[in-house]
From TrEMBL:
Key words of the record: GTP-binding, Ligase, Manganese, Metal-binding, Nucleotide-binding, RNA repair
UniProt family annotation: Belongs to the RtcB family.
Source species of the chain: Paenibacillus algorifonticola
Protein name: tRNA-splicing ligase RtcB
One example GO MF annotation: RNA ligase (ATP) activity
Secretion signal span: none
InterPro entries in the cross-refs: RtcB, RtcB-like_sf
EC number: 6.5.1.-
DNA sequence: ATGTAC
């Protein structure tokens, strides 16, 4: 049974472990194996895995788990990708989907969100009480207390405890490398979604029978309205990536390091440039988690405007799908890269944050526009893939091809425009978002089926969109 | 995904 969802592919430079059902495996672009072969030319690699939503990226595929030993390992900005710390966050509300049946109320809520959540960089003076230096050095712990409304008692400290990581240690030496304009722009981009597939969504959840106990332990109920956020580290992460990649490229030339792909950049963990990159990458992970936190803060304000002070929005979880860090597996320390891959730890795994020790933590998987997203939990079988599962649907058409091939009418139909159950969008033209139409992506349900079939994770809740807010 | 240069 299990082998139907797993293939070991032998390539000239090594092997890649592919988790995908037969149909998805057969449909993979041969280029994903070319990229795997290049990645496997980086020295000392211990493991490389692909998730069922794998697709071609720059230098490395989205859907990659790449692992080294800490002692003789390598770090690659190309494998992490340029949206460092990009990830997902879900908040639970005390609303039921029936309370949002009226399309006019959904419109009102989206309007309120647009008022509090800036779509572009905001003007000077906004968040002037937040110090960017504290944010990138200390993550959520660098925010003034007023932005952590539920942090005053240990039991209710959900914003700080229900996250994959609330703080990465950043000494700060390498921070001096960035020009003033990057600091300025990044401060003004705090709490903004950004473009592409990033979104904030109002969703209603459905709980399948098999994991009802876990759902209850997490506070999930049938028909409950949740807020899902998908965003990253904006210009800050992009600058880290660009700066470190260009320095590493020079070093690689000088030292004769490299693979068949000049765009695949890497350095030994022990090298000065490797250490600089890890520290700066951590600053971007800090930025990303704070960015998602502030987006949630804005949406909470909007919710209170529409539903009054009784509106609640507790944090279920915040986790990343573009990052690299040290992890223990079976007592050994590894340096694990995840690009478009989500960690999903099973029950009792020691790396679960305290509130999720017994059950495993929520693994959050976004769907494409108009389609469902998922809240999953890891299973012990995930160990074989270093506990990595998918990160979403996976693109099947480039942005340019999507704009050429998908009509606005097709896109509008998928968003049920004009129907009573229309998925309400914020004020942007449909034309400008056609490249995010579900027809540009694989079917997320099929991806999830592969993840479950392979024994990596299971579904705890399916989240259906009621309203979607996209950035600029 | 993103900023910037073409």
């Amino acid at each position: 049974m299990l082998q139907n969802y797993y293939q070991q592919v032998k390539l000239p430079s090594g092997q890649v472990h592919v988790y995908a059902g037969p149909e998805l495996f057969a449909a993979l672009d041969y280029k994903v194996f070319e990229l795997a072969n290049n990645n496997l030319q980086i020295p000392n690699q211990v493991y490389m895995g692909y998730t069922p939503d794998v697709h071609v990226g720059v230098g490395t595929c989205i859907g990659t788990t790449a692992v080294w030993n800490v002692e003789d390992g390598y770090v690659s900005p190309s494998i992490v990708g340029s949206d460092i710390g990009c990830g997902m966050r879900v908040h639970l509300t005390n609303l039921h989907k029936d309370e949002l049946k009226d399309v006019k109320l959904r419109r009102k809520l989206v309007k309120a969100i647009e008022k509090y959540l800036p779509m572009e960089e905001h003007g000077r003076g906004h968040f002037s009480d937040i110090r960017l230096e504290h944010v990138v050095k200390k993550g959520l712990h660098g925010l003034p207390k007023k932005y952590i409304p539920d942090a005053y008692t240990p039991r209710k400290a959900t914003s700080l405890t229900h996250v994959e990581s609330s703080k990465f240690y950043v000494e700060g030496g390498a921070l001096g490398l960035f020009p003033e304009r990057v600091w300025h722009r990044s401060h003004r981009q705090l709490g903004t979604l950004g473009g592409g597939n990033h979104f904030a969504e109002i969703q209603a959840i459905e709980i399948p029978e098999e994991n009802r106990e876990i759902a209850e332990a997490w506070g999930l109920t049938d028909g409950q309205v949740v807020i899902m956020i998908h965003s990253g580290s904006r210009a800050w992460g992009g600058s880290v990536s660009q700066y470190c990649s260009s320095n590493m490229t020079k070093m690689m030339k000088a030292e004769g390091l490299g693979t068949a792909d000049p765009k695949l950049v890497f350095a030994p963990l022990a090298h000065e440039l490797g250490k600089d990159y890890v520290e700066l990458m951590y600053s971007a992970l800090n930025y990303a988690v704070v960015n998602r936190h502030l987006i949630a803060y804005a949406i909470r304000e909007a919710g209170k405007d529409v539903f009054g002070s009784k509106f609640e929005m507790s944090t279920l979880y915040d986790l990343m799908h573009n990052y690299a860090w040290e992890e223990e597996h079976d007592g050994h320390s590894y340096f694990v890269h995840r690009k478009g891959a989500t960690r999903a730890l099973p029950a009792q795994h020691p790396d679960n944050p305290e509130p999720y020790k017994e059950t495993g933590h929520p693994a959050l998987i976004p769907g494409s526009m108009g389609s469902s997203s998922y809240i999953m939990v890891g299973k012990p079988g995930g160990r074989d893939n270093y506990h990595s599962i998918c990160h979403g649907a996976g693109r099947i058409r480039s942005r340019s091809a999507s704009k050429r091939l998908i009509t606005v009418e097709e896109f509008a139909a998928s968003m049920r425009v004009g129907m009573e159950d229309e998925i309400v969008l914020n004020q942007r033209s449909l034309e400008s978002m056609v490249d995010e139409s579900p027809q540009a992506y694989k079917d997320v349900d099929q991806i999830i089926e592969s993840v479950v079939g392979a024994g990596l994770a299971e579904v705890v809740a399916k989240c259906k969109p009621l309203a979607t807010v996209k950035g600029a």
